[in-house]
Amino acid sequence: MDLLAGTGGPVRVAGRELDRGALFERASAVAAEVRGAGTVAVHATASLETVTAVVGGILAGVPVVPLPPDSGPDERAHILTDSGASLLLAARGTESGDGPPIVPVDDLPAGGSHARPDVPGDATALILYTSGTTGPPKGVLISRGAVAAGLDALAEAWAWTPDDVLVHGLPLFHVHGLVLGVLGPLRVGSPLVHTGRPRPEAYAAAARDDGGTLFFGVPTVWSRTAADPSAAEALRRARLLVSGSAPLPVPVFERLTELTGHRPVERYGMTETLITISARADGDRRPGYVGTPLPGVETRLVAENGALVPPDGETPGELHVRGPLLFKGYLNRPEATARSFAPDGWFRTGDIASVGADGWHRIVGRASTDLIKSGGYRIGAGEIENALLAHPDVREAAVVGTPHADLGEQVTAYVVAEGVGERQLIDFVAGRLSVHKRPRVVHLVDSLPRNAMGKVVKTRLGEG
After folding, report:
1. What's the sign of the alpha-carbon dihedral 178, 242, 170, 24?
2. Is 371-460 the same fold as 11-188?
3. 321 CB contacts (<8 Å, ≥6 apart)?
4. Is 26 in a helix, a strand, or coil?
5. Exposed, middle or buried: residue 130 (CB in 10 Å: 0-12, 13-18, 19+)?
6. E strand residue ranges, 238-393
């Protein structure tokens, strides 16, 4: 099946641009070089070389493994060994280190046949490595059909057409930056402006100078944009601001709306599911909610005892999903694959959510870190984090459950703030939410540990 459109607008990454024809000529040279390989890795910097290499692998029908450029030696060795990559596609001058031979994609002669082999839809397109909280990362097998179904569903939900200009500066080794942010415009046919890094001033320049209409960002990007009124003002020219990869704090949602005139679109997904739930371009957008299931996607909430949770907008349960966007399994890990699915075939996301009668989903957090069981209550960390962020002196907040002799777990908050104390913040939350949801302990810290996508790494809270 054809995954990418052969025509469309140019691709620009960090100031360097290729028109669509030149991109496919260079990618065809890559395809000729790797055709027949079992799996190839790509040194996934924010560069045209990365885009060319990924497209070349897809044209050849060879599974592509994006390798984070900042991965340490142990992570790098694990990904390359576990995936069985026989080649590493990279820009000229990339150090080889230990691993497969490097193919400098910018040294390959452009041109040649654009013929595409007939690759079935269930063939693996990408192997994306998750960052799991325990053990080494697992390789997630994403089929060509899943990528196509996911991107087509998003194009419908966001009214995404070749007339749009997509702008973002996200890493090119995750679902958000690579699948949505590179393969998305290449499938839809829209131009792509990748800013190199997701700086508010770069987004503003793309809105003013490049006619950017569709902007992707993680909450950290949007928080920084909301703190830069001049950059935010430039985004009034846009059509849609999309936030994902982590919950967008309600105060940031409201501030962006005020400064840009746009209510951000939030969406939900995982490496294993791509994007399954989203607000729509022509519909409502509610702060703190991620929308309704995309076409072809079904969801349900399941309690710990296996019973279905009613869609009352309040009761939390583990979110299960099914649909054409799901992954094929974890590479070389049949037991882990089996554990991730319920006996009746639904994928267990491990995320806790509530769903209203109208189908709108609110993500509470991860079952492992964000569902706090305290004194017989089940408390979602996200609700408390949003309450803390509503305080004008709070910049960042993360909430977890910590052991408590009487309650089982107590609500513990880590907060970046100025001019406010622990007791004031505890009382502030107790005044906005049920008293049992107030933090028992608040740690005032200088910063929160985050990963490359801006998500707080809660297992590292309290370190140092």
Report:
1. positive
2. no
3. 273, 276, 293, 297, 298, 299, 346, 347, 349
4. helix
5. middle
6. 240-243, 265-270, 274-278, 292-293, 298-302, 317-322, 329-330, 347-355, 361-366, 371-374, 377-380
Distance CA 321, CA 370 (A): 19
Contact 39, 170 (CB under 8 A): no
Q: How far apart are CA 106 and CA 352, in angstroms?
A: 45
pLDDT at 118: 86
What fold is seen in the domain 11-188?
Rossmann fold (3.40.50)
Domain segments of the chain as ranges: 11-188, 371-460
Q: Mean pLDDT over residues 207-234, rounded?
A: 95
Coil, helix or strand at residue 18: strand
DSSP 139: E
Q: Give the model's confidence band at 115: pLDDT under 50 very low, under 70 low, under 90 confident, else very high.
A: low
CB-facing half-sphere around the CA of 171: CA atoms within 13 A: 19
**What tokens does 83 get?**
């995936």
Three-class DSSP labels, 214-231: EEEECHHHHHHHHCCHHH
Q: Name the phi and psi angles at 351, rounded to 5.
A: -100, 145
Q: How far apart are CA 308 and CA 300, in angstroms?
A: 7
Prediction pTM value: 0.84
How much is the average pLDDT of 397-413?
88
DSSP-derived 3-state class of residue 411: strand
Q: Are strands 240-243 and 166-168 parallel, antiparallel or unpaired?
A: unpaired
Q: Which residues of 66-76 are buried (b: 16+ CB within 10 A; e: fewer)?
A: bbbbebeeebb
List the structure tokens of 232: 């935010």
As assigned by CATH, the class of the 371-460 domain is alpha beta
In the predicted model, is pLDDT for residue 98 greater than 50? yes
Torsions phi, psi for 185 (to 5 deg): -65, -30
CB 309 within 8 A of CB 264: no
Residue 202 has pLDDT above 90, yes or no: yes
Please count the helices (runs of H) and the strands (runs of E) in the chain.
12, 25
Look-up: residue for tokens 């997904």? Answer: 269
pLDDT digits (tens, 9 = 90+) for 22-81: 999 999 999 999 999 999 999 999 999 999 999 999 999 999 999 988 787 878 888 999
